[in-house]
Every structure is written in C-alpha cells, then in structure tokens.
Design brief:
The chain contains 13 helices and 14 strands. It is α/β, with parallel strands linked by helices and 323 residues long. The chain folds into two domains: 166 residues, Thiamin diphosphate (ThDP)-binding fold, Pyr/PP domains (Rossmann fold, 3-Layer(aba) Sandwich); 132 residues, Rossmann fold.
Length: 323
C-alpha cells in the first residue's frame, strides 16, 4: 500500500491521457465542468477530440451515442448527480437500448463532495445505473484503481458507468494490486464475518476490520467490490458460506445501491444475517467531507457497530434472529 492521498478523479484524468495517446478514436465530452472533472487535461493535449457541450447533459449524451455509432469511443464526463439524473432518459433509451459504446464518468460521487451540498452530492446513481439493461457499473476504491478501471472500460463493448470523487482519499492499492473487471478482490481474509465495500468505504472497512481484531478478537474478511454490475456472485456466495454473515458499506443511499445488489445475490443463494451501511433515506448537506462522513454514518466506527450487531445475530439460532 502507498501511504499517500490522491483524488480518484486524478486517476480518471490520467487514464484518459493514456487512452488518448493509444487510440485516436477516443473522444471526451464534458458539460462545462472540465476544470473540476479534470478533463481539461485531455482538452489541452487533444483539443480536436474534446467537446465542451455546455450545461446540456441530455444533448451531450445523445451526441455521445452518435459518436459511438460512428465508431468513436466517447467518454462523457460531468458530475454524477447531473449525468445520472438529467440525462437518465437518454442513457436508457438511446445508449443502453442501443447498447452503444459510451463510457460515462460520474464525478463527485457521494457525500464527500462536501460544501457543494445536496444538489451536487450524488447519492443515488449506483441504483439508477445498475437497474439499466446493458449498463456496466464500476466504483473504484482509490486513484490507482480508478485509472485501471478507466483503462479497462475501453475493452468492454457497451456502456460503462465509472463513479469517482473529488476529494483526496487514501491510496490503498498499488501498481501490482490485481484489477479485473467484474471480479471482486479480497483485501483482508477472515472467517467470522465479511465486510463488502466499494469506493471510499473500502478504506474505512479495512480500518474497522483491524480495530475489531484488536479490540474484539474478530476475524473480519474485507472485500473490495469495485464492479457493481456485473456483480461477482461467486465471491459473495463464497463469503456468505464461509463466514456466515455480511455487512456492506457504501457512500450511497442504503436503498438500491451496492448493498441491495449483494442482498439480491445472498437471498437467492445463501441467506445469512446482513446489515447495510449507507445513507439512510436522506439528502446530503453542506459541510466538510470528514464531518459529513461522520454525520451520515459512513466512518469506520459505524461499520464496526454494524459488524458487532450482525455477528451477534449470526450466533443466534436462525429462528430467533431479530430483523
């Protein structure tokens, strides 16, 4: 692990520059936010392949579909809350229905956007994107994994949504950490209970697991589920069978997101006690990122609490388990 902080949007921007050098069919579209999404770096190097569409997300998505139909590989980039909300109809009816080769970069995902507040904090887009047929959804855990995921997205035929954030976050992988689209990574082995996380919450899950081992003697498995769709059912079922309980953690609404996707797999294959750590049916607020993560119950101490409660449920006979 590298002991440093770096924003996941940096990894996205780095990957676009690499792709731009390798493939002349790579084009980038932005909605008047290129300095914030960092696609301005691509624009500076490849001005003929960058299109600032203005504050017109629906038009941008339709244009991207047309470019894909013409053989280009468009990366559409803006804040996740805008691209998933304002352009959802165009993503559904044009991009996904036609299975066009459009890659979508959803910037500023989660509550950690901070002072921008509720209107700019994308807390619902994992649910909005994963429900769409033909859509692939990736939520990398750090800047290095974001770069790897963006590079991998080009090899996937069809639409891909990549979620990344604004703030600097801990770098918890390195260049040698494996990355395979659609395959979860076990970052920490354990036998008592499993925490499955994505994005920023992977780091919080690792911190919680270490503290739980020291303080409570619990052996906690931590899985980085960077690909939400297609979901790695094999890894989830294996964890359910081997550890007997699962806690999920995501910087997203608890309803409909990664945790819900995991619960769908668990209930079909190996029902075990589960708890979802996420945002509980509320809009975001303005504040500093670290304050908001605490206020909305997303720091390691909330994961620890969920693990302890779920582990207690696991120890009860199935008929006596409280919901």
């Amino acid at each position: 692990m590298e002991n440093k902080m770096k924003a996941t949007r940096e990894g996205y921007a780095e990957a676009l520059l690499i792709l731009g050098e390798e493939n002349p069919d790579i084009v980038v579209l932005d909605a008047d936010l290129s300095k914030s999404t960092l696609t301005n770096r691509f624009a500076e190097k490849f001005p003929g392949r960058f299109f600032d569409m203005g504050i017109a997300e629906q038009d941008m998505m339709g244009t991207a579909a047309g470019l894909a139909k013409a053989g280009k590989i468009p990366f559409v980039t803006t804040y996740g809350v805008f691209v998933s909300g304002r352009a959802w109809d165009q993503i559904r009816t044009t991009v996904c229905y036609g299975c066009f080769n459009v890659k979508i970069g959803g910037a500023h995902g989660g509550i950690s956007v901070g002072p921008d507040g509720a209107t700019h904090q994308s807390l619902e887009e994992i649910a909005l994107m994963r429900v769409l047929p033909n859509m692939n959804v990736i939520v990398p855990c750090d800047a290095i994994e974001t770069r790897k995921a963006t590079l991998a997205a080009v090899e996937i035929q069809g639409p891909v949504y990549i979620r990344f954030g604004r703030e600097k976050t801990p770098v918890i992988t390195d260049e040698d950490t494996p990355y395979e689209f659609g395959k979860a990574l076990t970052f920490r082995d354990g036998s008592d209970i499993t925490v499955i996380a994505c994005g920023y919450e992977v780091g919080e899950a690792l911190a919680a697991a270490e503290e739980l081992e020291k303080e409570n003697g619990l052996s906690v498995r931590v899985i980085n589920l960077h690909t939400i769709k297609p979901i790695d059912e094999e890894a989830i079922v294996k964890a359910a069978k081997e550890t007997g309980a699962i806690v999920t953690a995501e910087e997203h609404q608890a309803a409909g997101g990664m945790g819900s996707a995991i619960a769908e797999v668990v209930v079909r294959n190996c029902p075990v006690p589960m708890r979802l750590v996420g945002i509980e049916d509320r809009f975001g607020e303005s504040g500093q990122p670290e304050e908001l993560l605490e206020e909305f119950g997303l720091t390691s101490r909330f994961i620890k609490k969920a693990v302890l409660e779920t582990f207690e449920r696991k120890k009860q006979p199935a008929a006596n388990r409280a919901v």
